[in-house]
Amino acid sequence: MAIGVVPRVARTLALVLAGLFVAVLAGAAFAPLAQASGSTESIRGTLEERTADDERIPVPGVRIAIEGEGFEGEGVTDENGDWLVELPGPGSYTAALDESTLPDEVVLRDAEDNPWSGEVRTGRSQVVRFNLGEGVARSASTLDRILERGSVGLRFGLLLALAAVGLSLIFGTTGLTNFAHAEQVTLGGLLGYTFAAGMGVPLVLAAVMVLIAGALFGWTQDAALWKPLRRRGTGIIPMMIVTIGLSLFARSVVQAFYGSSPRSFPHRSPVVDLGPTRLTVYDYVTMGVAAALLVAVAYVLLRTRWGKATRAVSDNPALAAASGINVDAVVRGVWTVGAALAALGGMFLGLSQQVSAQMGVNMLLLMFAAVVLGGLGTAFGAMAGALIVGVFIEVSTIVIPTEIKNVGALAILILILLVRPQGMLGRRERVG
Amino acid sequence: MDWNSLVANSFHAAFGVNAIAYAIAAIGLNIHFGYTGLLNFGQAGFLAVGAYGTAISIVHFDVPYFLAALIGMSMAVLLALLLGLPTLRLRADYLAVATIAAAEIVRLVIGSTVYARWTGGSSGFSGAFSNAFYNANPLPNETLHFGPVSVTPNRAWFMIVGWSLVAVIALLVWLLVRSPWGRILKGIREDEDAVRSLGKNVFARKMQALIIGGVIGSIAGIALVTGERAVLPNVFGTQLTFFFWTLLLLGGVARVLGPVLGAVILWLVFAVTESILRSGASAGWVPEALVSQSQIGLIRVMLVGLGLMLLMIFRPQGIVGDRRELAFDVR
């Protein structure tokens, strides 16, 4: 709408500034080398095993030999995986990790990392990183790492898609940006945990129960809150702020019940060796179920009367109502299905990572990123966007530190809003 | 119930560090949303860059406190430019998502170990950076007593400076919004296209509003960390922004004193709820577990969430606001 008025210069400048964002991220890749603490020179690091789902487990009792400038020393990692060797002065040193002291199931991810050699400058505490992974030794080829991260990303992307489809459908049919959608994911994760780990219900049955509970939750929410608000003629933005209030309220209530510490499902399944990938049987099963459900949603939207009605409401609610479609029933259905899928997505995510009261809100902005990337309001866009965001986040950890991997996805969100706010599959006029 | 401690706690809550910082932050948000109609969900990001700009300048570069605060505020100008150039032409709800994402980027980056050398990572900075502010305290070095309320000299010094700052900023905002410039802002809020057809540069006015509100937000950030004497990245989460929204909507949108009123009332409600729960716990009709520090924090979030929903549904204009001045149309 305002594009014509914004001077071209401003847009160019905006692109440059957005580029700066990316530069900050790139800088992050090299920043750890520049860390320093203390006044004398030393070499230090933290040995952590990074599992396929990004859990970090410290590895104690590993020996690292330091040599250089006529000095020889040795460091041993403590129970936090930390090690430090003080040096007599600046100069060039090598740090060699003794692989025979590693636990059997832990290996170096990159053989060429070991031994490390480099300069230690005056007053610096040089951080040396050895990346550890579990299982069989992995070759260091970039392709293998991309495949391995990509497989984790694909799994996350599929589950993200499952969670985000509802967000996009609700936006499409009602125009509402639902911040409380995150709480439906959390609810699914925590209920799944309660059923499967607390009450000992078999996983498959627990998943079905979560699906039903999620559907009930979505149905009730629309019946008790959103439909009355729509009837009153409450605007879209006030409703969006209501979703924020609901999100804060629901999250704090859930946290009061479950506490704030994350929990893990006790269920374990064997790792499937497929090339460089390290996904477990559960991972493949959840990915398969997620993909099947997404295909089912697509089928319903494209081939059934109800799906056609949904798409008609997304297109133009007034026209849909005028042609005899029961808009309220369609919206009710979208809330029910969307909440059910989000809850199941939450349980599946919890199965491979952890469940906590914050798990939903931690991925809310990733869901937004996926939905905006694909095109707000389009179900297929949300699926495609989620897959891209999931794979991008994981593959990007090859170059940027894992702890800020989500920053990349958020930067994409802003960049997409800048260059193509309607997303990949959206249409221009939706943006206004 | 212990009335003395209730009065003392209420006084410190309603006029203390948090009320001051929240009031200033919400005044900034009021310029964005109340007067211009910009749906900024990333105000916490402006507080974060203000706080960290100031603390980093002092800790790493030994910059004098006042100059450091100016650096923190200029960081907010940068963030506003960075954020505004791509997003100000978006529709309201898109702007909301973009600003919330930007604020999260700021928080994740300053809290990460990657830049821990500069930012202190997740543990941030301790209070030493604010020493210059408290060393300038001209008050006599003895605790003041007003009935049940006692105020340490440092706290009194902060409250005097803080409330003066609130008064000055509120006055400036009052002068700004009744100027021709302020009338254009309100025009943008009401009908952007009409303002544009009058030959006004809507984008530039929106950008100026974003910058001014953001700088006021950064002042709130500096006030918050100076008062708390600690800089922690997780303080600046999205939740903080929604606290500002709640108190702004509570006090009244598009009123100069709305955010100030909202901040005082919000913190008063927090203090009174906490006192009631604590006395209930000692009397035995509230479970002890409910009044632990983390649970009190949860109860605050619960109140804010519930308050936000109820306000939005039943009284969006808040206490002193005017319903006709609410900018809730999607553009």
CATH class of the largest domain in chain A: Mainly Alpha
Taking all residues together, what is the mean pLDDT of chain B? 91
Task: Kindly report the average pLDDT value of chain A.
Answer: 82
CATH architecture of the largest domain in chain A: Orthogonal Bundle
As a percent range, the share of strand residues of chain B is under 5%
Q: Number of helical runs of chain B?
A: 14
Instruction: Show unreliable segments of chain B.
Output: none
Question: Explain this structure to me?
Answer:
- The complex is a heterodimer of chains A (432) and B (331).
- Chain A is α+β, with helices and mostly antiparallel strands.
- Chain A has helices at residues 8-30, 142-174, 181-198, 203-232, 236-258, 281-303, 305-315, 317-322, 327-352, 359-374, 379-396, 405-419, and strands at 42-46, 48-50, 56-58, 63-68, 71-76, 82-86, 91-97, 106-108, 116-120, 125-127, 132-134.
- In chain A, a hairpin with a 5-residue loop joins strand 2 and strand 3 (56-58).
- In chain A, helix 4 (203-232) runs antiparallel to helix 9 (327-352) and helix 10 (359-374) crosses helix 11.
- Chain B has one domain (11-116, 152-325): Orthogonal Bundle (ABC transporter involved in vitamin B12 uptake, BtuC), CATH 1.10.3470.
- The longest helix of chain B has 27 residues, at 202-228.
- Chain B has 14 helices and two strands.
- Chains A and B meet through helix 1, helix 5, helix 10 and helix 12 of A and helix 4, helix 5, helix 12 and helix 14 of B.
